[in-house]
Design a protein that fits this description.
Blueprint: E1 2-6, H1 12-15, E2 21-25, E3 40-43, H2 51-54, E4 61-64, H3 74-79, E5 83-85, H4 92-110, E6 118-122, H5 126-137, E7 141-145, H6 147-150, H7 160-166, E8 169-172, H8 190-194, E9 201-204, H9 213-222, E10 227-230, H10 241-246, E11 249-250, H11 259-277, H12 285-288, E12 296-297, H13 305-316, H14 319-332, H15 336-348, E13 359-361, H16 368-376, E14 380-382
Helix pairs in contact: 4-5, 13-16, 14-15
Bound molecules: 1,4-dihydronicotinamide adenine dinucleotide and ligand LXYGBJRG.
GO molecular function: 4-phosphoerythronate dehydrogenase activity; NAD binding; protein dimerization activity
Binding site for substrate: 45, 66, 257
Binding site for NAD(+): 146, 231, 256
Length: 385
C-alpha cells in the first residue's frame, strides 16, 4: 500500500509502521501527480482535495487530521466512491484555551474585567459547547447561537442578530460553508459588524471567510472601540498587514495547535483507516504520546482569586507570544510570497504547547476558591487524586 501524507502530521510513522510505503510532502504541494499511485491520502487543512484531483489514481481513502473539512469536496469524493474521515473534536480543547487567553488579553487592553462580560458563542458544536461549559464553570454568562442545532432543540438558542445585540463578546466556532440555509461564508458581514455593541470584543478562530475581512477592515477604521482577535484570515496564508494592525491579537491559525490536539487528530485518522481496511487498530495514543504534562502548580493563598486564575490560565497558554511572532514575521516580510511562507513556517515550527488539563494542582496547598473554579472548568487535574 502507498500512503501519501502531509509532512506536518505527527506520529504518523509510528502509527503506520508496517502499513506500506509512506511518502511525506508539504501539504500545499500535494496534487494529482503526488497521488498518482497512492492508495491512501492523509492531509491537514492546507491541502484542497477534490474528486478531480483523484481521478485516475488508486486513492480510495482520504483522511484529514483536522476538525474542519472545508478543504475537502465531500459530495464529489462521496460520488466518486472515496471514503473520507476527519477528526471531530481533536483539538477543541486547544481552541477553548486560545479563546480564554484572548479574553484575558482583551480585558487588559480595555481595562474591563472579562469575568463581567456576556460571551456570545456562534456555533455550539465540539468547540462551542466546550467553551460554553468552561466559561459557565468560571462563572461567566454565555448566550448561544446555532440555527442548525436549534432545528432539533431550540432550548437556550437565540438568533445571531439577537446575540450581536446582547453580547459584549462574540466568539465564532462554525464550519465554513457556502451553500444551504445556514451558510457561514461572510456570516459576519458589514451590516452585522456595524451592529456590534460599543466596545464589543470579536474573536474568530473558525475559518477566515466566516467574517468579511474587507468589511471588518472598513468597520475597524471607523470603530476603534471594537477589539478584535483573529486567528484565521480570509486570504490565508497571506495576512492583510493593515487588518492585522487594527486587530488587538493576530495569530497564524494556531488556536487548536496543542501537541495533544494534533496527536489526537493522528490517532483518530489511524483508527478510521484501520476500520476502512478492516484491520484491528492495535495502537493507542497513550502508547506513543509523550507522557510529560505541564507540571504541578501550587497556588499559594494570598493574592486575589481572579489574579491567580489569570496567572494559571497564562501559565499554560499565552496568546500574546503567538501574536508577537506573527507581527514580527509580517513586519520582516519583504514580499507577499515571503509573508505566505512566513505564515506557514510559524505553523510548521510551532513551539511545544500542552493542554491545560495536564497541569496538576495541589488542592491541599492552593488557594481553595481558585482551585475549585479551575477544577470545575476542567483546566487542571487534582494532584491529590
Ligand atoms: N483555528 C483553529 O485552529 C481551529 C479551527 N477550527 C474550526 O472551527 C470549526 C468549528 O469546530 P467544531 O466546533 O469542532 O465543529 P462542529 O461541527 O462540532 O460544530 C460546529 C457547529 O456550528 C453550527 N453551525 C453551522 N452553521 C451555523 C450557522 N450558520 N450559525 C451558527 N451555527 C452554525 C453547527 O450546527 C455545529 O453545531 C471547524 O469547522 C473548523 O473550521 C477547528 C479547530 C481548530
Ligand atoms: O482542526 C482544524 O480544523 C484546524 O483548523 C487545524 O488546527 C488546522 O491545522 P492545519 O491542518 O492547518 O495544520
Amino acid at each position: 500500500m502507498h500512503i501519501v501524507a502531509d509532512e506536518n502530521i505527527p506520529l504518523l510513522d509510528e502509527f503506520l509502521a508496517g502499513f506500506g510505503r509512506l511518502t511525506r510532502l508539504p501539504g500545499r504541494l500535494i496534487d494529482h501527480t503526488s497521488v498518482k499511485d497512492a492508495d491512501v491520502l492523509l492531509v491537514r487543512s492546507v491541502t484542497k482535495v477534490s474528486a478531480a484531483m483523484l481521478v485516475g489514481t488508486p486513492v480510495r481513502f482520504v483522511g484529514t487530521c483536522t476538525i474542519g473539512t472545508d478543504h475537502l469536496d465531500l459530495p464529489g469524493l462521496a460520488a466518486a466512491g472515496v471514503e473520507v474521515a476527519s477528526a471531530p473534536g481533536c483539538n477543541a480543547r486547544g481552541v477553548v484555551e486560545y479563546v480564554l487567553s484572548c479574553l484575558l488579553t482583551l480585558s487588559e487592553r480595555s481595562a474591563s474585567a472579562w469575568q463581567d462580560k456576556t460571551v456570545g458563542i456562534v456555533g455550539v458544536g465540539e468547540v462551542g459547547s466546550r467553551l460554553a461549559c468552561t466559561l459557565q464553570a468560571l462563572g461567566i454568562k454565555t448566550l448561544l447561537c446555532d440555527p442548525p442545532r436549534a432545528e432539533q432543540d431550540a432550548d437556550g438558542m437565540i438568533t445571531l442578530d439577537e446575540l450581536i445585540s446582547r453580547c459584549d463578546v462574540i466568539s465564532c466556532h462554525v464550519p465554513l460553508t457556502s451553500d444551504g440555509p445556514h451558510a457561514t461564508h461572510h456570516l459576519l458581514n458589514e451590516q452585522r459588524l456595524a451592529a456590534l455593541r460599543p466596545g464589543a470584543w470579536l474573536i474568530n478562530s473558525s475559518r477566515g471567510p466566516v467574517i468579511d475581512n474587507t468589511a471588518l477592515n472598513t468597520v475597524l477604521a471607523q470603530r476603534p472601540d471594537l477589539l478584535v482577535a483573529l486567528d484565521v484570515w480570509e486570504t490565508e496564508p497571506l495576512v492583510d498587514p493593515q487588518l492585522a494592525a487594527r486587530c488587538v491579537l493576530a495569530t497564524p491559525h494556531i488556536a487548536g495547535y496543542s501537541l495533544d490536539g494534533k496527536l489526537r487528530g493522528t490517532a483518530q485518522i489511524y483508527q478510521a483507516l484501520c476500520r476502512f481496511l478492516d484491520i484491528p487498530a492495535t495502537l493507542a495514543l497513550e502508547q506513543l504520546a509523550p507522557r510529560t504534562g505541564a507540571g504541578t502548580w501550587i497556588m499559594e493563598p494570598g493574592p486575589p482569586a481572579d489574579w491567580l486564575l489569570s496567572k494559571a490560565l497564562r501559565q499554560v497558554y499565552d496568546v500574546r507570544d503567538d501574536d508577537a511572532r506573527l507581527r514580527a514575521m509580517v513586519a520582516a516580510a519583504e514580499s507577499e510570497q515571503a509573508s505566505r511562507e512566513g505564515f506557514d513556517r510559524l505553523r510548521k515550527d510551532y513551539p511545544l504547547r500542552r493542554e491545560c488539563n495536564l497541569l496538576r494542582i495541589s488542592t491541599a496547598t492552593s488557594e481553595p476558591q481558585v482551585a475549585r473554579r479551575l477544577l470545575a472548568a476542567g483546566f487542571v487535574s487534582d494532584d491529590e487524586s
